[in-house]
């Protein structure tokens, strides 16, 4: 006669009183084997996989994803064949409860080669990915998942590991525990918006994994500004706002065609470059909730007027959180324009998987000319300094030649 085994949560180790179920890897009716992972738990100290110590058929799953569990809570019920040895509690033998022998998770370390060990709140990943991340002491929160619902895949983890080989061998700075600023006076603590948290994670990853070089140039846009104002006057009655951005986007296409490596992406293996034959330009838009980058597709096939209309539309919907996911994907080159705010130059951070981004600052008067400061950041693994200098010079020359925009 088959036996029914109840599997309960073991002691998770010193200092861990409870954990949250982040993943359930089995379902009712499923046949599982010894050592198959049935659950993944997340605590404030570690990520843990709970394996099965028996082979059999899952009769019931007694917990739910997101549920908080503590030692001795019932997890699943398994039916096993006679003779299948187990150290778990049988249905009718509840006095001497035994639980699977899993490794006690390590305490957090202050210094590690990559990042604090196995802290993965809210991260979706397979048990295999979690195991490898723990072995290498990688925080999965630092990796942007490409899978469904942001799941961190094996390829994502491998890409992250390879990217670390390109940066300094010194340890990444690990912040200490939060400082109690209230000791010195009144404070106000506000939670970051979801957009800012995600953007921060992506920018951190980009800055750590891509060797940035930034090239600066001052471009004469005197004649281009006259052209823009003339076009703006004609379109004002129609309610169409003509800014400098559409001209910059058109100029970027001219230069990207001449310097195709700036319109490429480096494959995760680091061995191949993908040259794209389409020109989808991302435009950084600042909203109350954080920075978003909608992508204007096929800029090479659109007029300045068409781009202006589309920019008005996506900018408005970005501020009202009405952009679709597809409108944020597929960019080949990004422009970040801070001209409306001020400043001279800045170092924009590349938006992966792109290899370059153009930063635009406020125009200024200089020797009776209107000068536009430009800052180009590029991926030094793909683009060398000579190519970067050639790109900004070519870009500046395009902006001077207003015939290209008529």
Please explain how this structure is put together.
The structure is a single chain. Helices cover 24% and strands 23% of the residues. The chain has 406 residues and is α+β, with helices and mostly antiparallel strands. Strands 10, 13, 16, 17, 18, 19 and 20 form a 7-stranded mixed beta sheet that branches. A 5-stranded antiparallel beta sheet has the order 3-6-8-1-9, with no helix packed on it. Helix 5 crosses helix 7. The radius of gyration is 27 Å and the shape is elongated. The termini are far apart.
The total of beta strands comes to 20
Rg, Å, rounded: 27 Å
Secondary-structure element order, N to C: EEEEEEEEEHHHEHHEEEEEEHEEEEH
Low-confidence stretches: 85-121
- Which structural class fits the helix and strand makeup? alpha+beta
* CATH class annotation of the domain at 212-405: Alpha Beta
Report on the biggest sheet: 7 strands, mixed
**How far from one another are the termini?**
86 Å
General shape: elongated
Q: CATH superfamily assignment of the domain at 212-405?
A: Chloramphenicol acetyltransferase-like domain
Question: Assembly type of the shown chains?
Answer: single chain
Beta-strand proportion: 15-25%
What is the averaged pLDDT score? 81
CATH architect. name of the domain at 212-405: 2-Layer Sandwich
CATH topology of the domain at 212-405: Chloramphenicol Acetyltransferase
